[in-house]
Design brief:
The protein contains eight helices and ten strands. It is an alpha/beta fold and 238 residues long. The chain has an eight-stranded parallel barrel with strand order 1-2-5-6-7-8-9-10, surrounded by four helices. A hairpin with a 5-residue loop joins strand 2 and strand 3. Helix 3 crosses helix 4.
Length: 238
């Protein structure tokens, strides 16, 4: 089991990266990434941009302590964090209502991937894996990088996509599918956003209601959460 600390506003930038450096049980960190109008990649959390247009982060950078992805990777390097880094690429919420809009979306996705790959090529010393809910971004990434790529399964979409790992939310737990993914030597991460998600996971895998199959695959599951200590106390300390 891997425990991944997810960056949200639960911690400030300084607190978060130093926490990851100090906690021995944390196996990696998870970051949301967006490509905005200033043609820069930013790391942000939903709380940070609750009242901000995600495509215009540059002018809010100082006010809301938003760091560019380059700044974050430099910080990881400076702290000598020998840890896994998961990047969740947030796709553009684009209303494709015309041919020009479609061309704009295609160009946006191509620029997004090109900028990301160019940046990551400067950080071969950092173990970075990339996932997203966008199949389009994944297909572009497959052609342009050798980094491990993951698919963030969402909205009931369980159709196959060959990835190195898969990210699920707890409401999409399906042990039969998980068993097949693990048989194929792929990794599974469960993205936990709060107490309700923790409750689902505990009831399904560690309570008296847990099936033989769920108990069998549980040790091979990984968890992503903003409060990794809770995962450690509830699951890994057993």
């Amino acid at each position: 089991m891997k425990i991944i600390a997810h960056k949200t506003d639960y911690y400030s930038n300084e607190e978060f990266y130093h926490q990851v450096a100090q906690e021995e049980f944390v196996d990696g960190l998870s970051l949301n990434v967006v490509y905005d109008k200033s043609h820069e990649l930013f790391v942000y959390s939903p709380a940070t941009v609750e009242n901000i247009t995600v495509l215009n982060l540059e002018k809010h950078k100082n006010t809301h302590q938003v760091l560019s992805l380059k700044e974050v990777l430099d910080k990881i390097r400076s702290l000598k964090l020998d840890t896994l880094v998961l990047l969740n690429l947030v796709p553009m919420d684009y209303n494709v209502s015309s041919e020009d809009a479609l061309k704009g979306l295609i160009a946006y996705n191509q620029d997004y991937v090109s900028l990301l790959v160019t940046l990551l090529n400067q950080y071969d010393d950092i173990q970075v894996q990339v996932h997203t809910i966008s199949r389009t971004l994944l297909q572009l990434l497959e052609k342009n990088t050798n980094r491990k790529l993951g698919y963030f399964v969402h909205g009931g979409d369980l159709s196959p996509f060959d990835a190195s790992y898969y990210v699920f939310t707890p409401n999409m737990i399906d042990d039969t599918i998980f068993q097949e993914i693990l048989r194929l030597k792929r990794e599974i991460f469960l993205s936990i956003t709060g107490a309700a998600d923790l409750d689902i996971c505990f009831r399904h895998y560690r309570s008296k209601y847990a099936t033989a199959l769920s108990q069998e695959i549980f040790p091979d599951l990984n968890f992503i959460m903003a409060q990794p200590t809770l995962i450690m106390r509830i699951f890994k300390s057993e």
